[in-house]
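Journal club side-thread
Mid-discussion, someone asked how the predicted structure for our own chain would compare to the paper's figures. Pasting it here so we can look after the session.
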Amino acid sequence: MFLSTEHQQVADMTRRFADQVIRPEAERLDREEAFAGEIYQQMAQNGLFGITVPEAYGGAGLDCLAYSIVMEELSRGYASVADQCGLVELFGTMLCKYGTEAQKAQWIGPLIRAELRGAYCITEAGAGSDVSGIKTTATKDGGGWKLTGSKLWIHNAPVADVAFVLARTDPQAGKRGMSIFIVDCNKAGVTRGPKEHKLGQRSSQVGELNFDNVAVPADGLLGVEGRGFHMMMSVLEKGRVGIGALAVGIIQAALEASIAQAKLRQQFGHAIAEFQAIQFLLADMAKDAEAARLLVRSAAMKMDAGLDAAMAASMAKCFAGDAAVAQASNAVQIFGGSGFIRGYEVERLYRDAKITQIYEGTNQIQRVIIARKLLE
């Protein structure tokens, strides 16, 4: 797929940023499980947040294809850093689509400038793939609301300033009885669980957010009451394009590391790159990277054209996530025992890849979506 001059410039700029700023810090961030606050400030300064948000609201004003390119290149540096770009994109998209002008003015700019950190709160202990199982409730209280419940495995929960929370406002209405609330995480009644210690993407802060009778003003309701489920699902298509692109970045990083290692490592008096067994592994990595990249960019372009991109986004996310796990494993194989040792990039890539099959809807859920679209 040939990129326009503008898209190629976006790719080149983001790749330079990843090489010069992100990659030198990736091993330390992973080892220390440290939040990459300084890098996020630099990303904000370089316009790497809010890629598709209009310039009038502080974004870059670009398209979903550009967003997928940015996510891939950032992830090639370190997937945990790309995660933050994806989160800000979801917040910006949701606010632009459903927010009032006052809400846009209050929240979009600070999120894009990395002045505020957001958390996207759907998952609960009994509601992961089945979002309809959420128990968090919001009840009317005078002119506002009272919010009660717990959210689990939430990105940025340990460091969030603001949470976008899906809650039940009409327990009898099923999916049509859910609404989204914008909640100040410093308000009374909001508490955080401890930071989770994860297998991979360890710099991304994940934890629990608890809401105990939290007062939310009337203007904390985002969009129309009762349409929260549909609103959150509508932005997850773009989220799946983003995670697909993130997975492509992992494959690309694994391929580049593996090529360099295959040329360097000697066995039986030859560089292992000369052995057909290694060549086949590299070939599989390259073809999966290209196939995943094309699926992701095809889905992005469908979104940009205003077409139904649900199946394309699910295909892209599912294929790219599965390929990232398989090809990161092949990268470890090429490195041999070294690939199993902490501190080697491919060991981290292998751990970072697994979650791409799980978040933004498991790959099993993506297959359900694809099948339903085929059988409509």
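Post-session note: The mean pLDDT is 96.
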